[in-house]
Sequence to fold (597 residues):
Amino acid sequence: MIGLLAANACYLAIGACITRRVGLAYVVGVAVVGIATAHLALIHVPIGLLELLVVAVALGIYRWRRRWIRPELGEHPGVVGGVLLVLALGLLVKATAAFAVRPLIEWDGWAIWAMKARALFDFGGVQHDVFTTAPYAPLQHPLLLPSLEATGFRAIGSYDGTLIHLQLALLALGFALGLWTLLRERVGSPLAGVAVLAIVAADSTLQQLAGNLADIPLAMFVALGLLCLGRWLLEADRGLLALGAVFLGAATLTKPEGLLFASAALLAAAVAWRRDLLWGALGVVAIYAPWRIFVAAHHLRNQEYSLGDALDPSYLADRSERVRPAVSGVWHQVWASGWSWLVPFALVSLGAALLAQRWRISAFAAIWAVLSFGGIVLVFWISVVPIQLTLLWAAYRTVASLVIGAAALAPLLAGEAWRTTRIRARSDERSTDASPRPVSVASSSGS
Amino acid sequence: MTTAAAARAAVVVAFAVALVSAARDYRGTWDWLSGQRAQFVHLSATERVQEPGVAQLLPVDAFDFFRSHLREGDRYFVAAEPKNFQTGVDAAQATRIFSRYYLLPAIQVADAARADFVVTVGLDPHTAGVPLARVWKFGGGQYFVGAVRR
Fold:
């Protein structure tokens, strides 16, 4: 276990050399190391504790001597927000204790994800047939999560199907702190705290994470990437766009659906067309490209569906009887009790932003959610697996990114509504008291 | 009520909804985590390793028998008697899928002609269609490992 914790300390150190936000450093480090190790696995270069230490020290020296970035601990959490954050972190510490003794149980958890992680640990990369031949299907799942877990195994010196869960719990802790940090810089601490607490407390979040499936890690990267893009829309901060590209790039390497959610986010961000967005999109493409080249070079096919079929009207028409159950099945899962009231939270927040006339951020959130929902339905529509079976197996977890992503954006929407209405109210008061001259709030509202 | 007041009211409602959302599930998630730790903390190291198969009601001791005959990089072919296992998965498929995880770092192949070993469940390994130099039978049931003659 000490080796695993040491590896995670390296992720934190590497992340701290990339971002000045201390609360975000660990999850940035996980994303960056996950991306790098997933790519290096393709060329059979295994990364262990020694290599992580060398990279962390080298980056630290570079930062110290050349481009020092002053770490920022973030603003004071406030009483209400602080209590809510502590409750969330308490639950995640409890999860860490539970996950640390949990063996692999769920089918896909060991049959797909742990199997790939173990093979990467055993062989050091994608050599042999494990990643390219039919007995090891599905082959289209990218390698970020298995690579991260294999790095942990190298750090402890052996494969361990129990400690694999500790890595997942640490990722959840990093996600919660990262989400808090990104939100707290823009919205009040009560809203930031309640969003973090609501997401981690929802039944499905930790229960699905415990299964060692990639859906919740994917949802975490998608949510953080969305939040970075949302804030970039409001603040035009290129650093946030770069972080968003890293998180969305990590999402594309976590599960095939990551490409769907990341593309939807970049398309939705086009509501505020700025040239910077092109660089962000290119960053995501650059992160995804090596895996796509590997898939093409080895002719790896998704056995369940081909995205090309989505562009074939006759194929879609032939399977039109799948649309209704796909829509109702996905809709049902979005509203499932396992997500508690996260969806109503997102919808009410969107309503608040619309009432406050925060059009751009509202459009970003709504377009992303609609595209993501439509994309999920489309995947079930074009799949060759019987519709009831694929909905039963996959719908409950495929919606995780949609629900958690929407819930992560919710406080940004609500916070903008609150901020805007307060600014307008103050402006109105001032204009009433001082002079009849109208006061514009456009510059302060960021619309 | 102005739209600004309505927007602020909606923010308050959103906060309340999120708070209720967290409150509804917090205790349940906490109890679930407690239950998970209580359920698994006493498992031995061997039981933890075997749990993925045990949880699926697979005969893990037979897979331990298979594993005892395979080394890193060995290629093996799996054949199993087809019968129902669970929704969408038959027993032969379940055997192949658990083998590919549990028998790592040996490598499963789809074609017996490429295999160093044939692993069978409920079937005579000679039915795989490749010449076998030697066959081992598991004492606990119809599980076989055959070494392919080269």
Observations:
- Residues 198 and 342 of chain A are 7 Å apart (CA to CA).
